[in-house]
Amino acid sequence: MERILRALPSKPQPLWLRYSATTILVALSFLLMKALQEFTPVQGYFLLFPAIFLAAVAFDRGSGFYATALCTVLLAIWGGLPNEVEYSSEHWFSLGLFAITGLCLAAVSQGLRVEWERAVTAEKQKAILLREFRHRTREPSSYPGCVRRHCSSCEARQHYWSHMQRACHQCL
Question: Where are the domains of the chain?
Answer without folding.
Answer: 2-125
